[in-house]
Design brief:
Blueprint (H helix, E strand, L loop, with lengths): L5 H15 L13 H8 L26 E5 L6 H7 L3 E6 L2 H14 L3 E5 L13 E6 L10 H10 E12 L26 E5 L5 E6 L3 H10 L2 E8 L15 H4 L5 E8 L1
Parallel strand pairs: 1-2, 1-4, 2-3, 4-5
Antiparallel strand pairs: 5-9, 6-7, 8-9
Helix pairs in contact: 3-4
Length: 267
């Protein structure tokens, strides 16, 4: 695994543990309907049932067939399953072997070919120049201290006119915990200037490290790498309110915080 360091080692353990514990965000999507996936990608289905709505905006899926797609730090058998069903040539690079196993399980289930690479998203030296038409990245940036190495790598592996799509949490609410409900809201307890937080077990041992990225670094970094920002989309998760969600729970917390995806093109 390239780029291994203390941050990578800690986060690898965290995500391996999440897979072992059966966290929903690590489970492969094995009940997708190929016809529904195609309709969503084609723009004829706006509100798909199941988890498919989390792959957004739909228009980045529209021309996936026969394209080379890199799911960057997006292991687990979710995004790769969607692109595989759309007929893309899919490569998944992820830090955690347990996550990549989910991608392999999805590929075996649906019957499409897949390449998996265990590696750090900050070091894409194992990938050839201009190898991909699309780089799709989910919620991964919050696990690295600097977005620039990722931007540099993806700008190199993208083909001219290629698309990069990436998720970010709203930096203002990056460190708002789901367990800080005080009866009326979730509390901001970490000053905005603090960009790093270590989560610990009750024993005091470090569990994982998370990072906040400001709007300046998110957007200016892409521009400096020669990418043109085409769209910014609010994440649909935060608009699907569950009226029965209990305050202090994950579903309820999602109605108070926000996130977004950036779609940029290599000119």
């Amino acid at each position: 695994m390239n780029g291994s360091d203390q941050i990578a080692a800690l986060n690898e353990k965290h995500w391996t543990r999440a897979v072992q514990e059966g966290a929903g965000c690590t489970a492969p999507w094995l009940d997708l309907d190929p016809a529904v996936v195609r309709a969503y990608a084609g723009g004829t289905l706006e509100n798909p049932a199941g988890p498919l709505y989390q792959i957004y905006p739909a228009h980045v899926l529209a021309k996936a067939q026969n394209k080379d797609v890199l799911c960057l730090a997006s292991g687990g058998g979710q995004q790769s399953a969607v692109f595989g069903l759309l007929g893309a040539r899919v490569t998944v690079l992820d830090l955690t072997q347990a996550q990549l196993n989910g991608d392999r399980a999805a590929a075996a289930h649906y019957g499409y070919n897949l390449t998996t690479i265990r590696g750090d998203m900050r070091d894409l030296s194992c990938l050839a120049d201009t190898a991909f038409d699309l780089v799709y990245q989910g919620h991964a940036m919050g696990w690295v201290p600097d977005v620039q190495p990722i931007y540099r790598g993806l700008a190199r592996v993208l083909r001219p006119d290629g698309i990069y799509r990436v998720d970010f949490s709203n930096p203002a609410t990056e460190f708002v915990d789901w367990n800080t409900w005080d009866g009326t809201g979730y509390r901001l307890t970490v000053p905005y200037a603090i960009t790093e937080r270590v989560e610990r077990f009750e024993s005091g041992e470090a569990q994982c490290i998370q990072f906040r990225h400001s709007m300046s670094y998110i957007f200016n970094g892409l521009i400096e790498m020669g990418l043109s920002i085409e769209h910014v989309h609010d994440a649909p998760d935060y608009f699907r309110r569950n009226e029965g969600a209990e305050p202090g729970g994950w579903d309820h917390w999602l109605t108070y915080v926000g996130g977004f995806a950036v779609v940029a093109r290599k000119r």
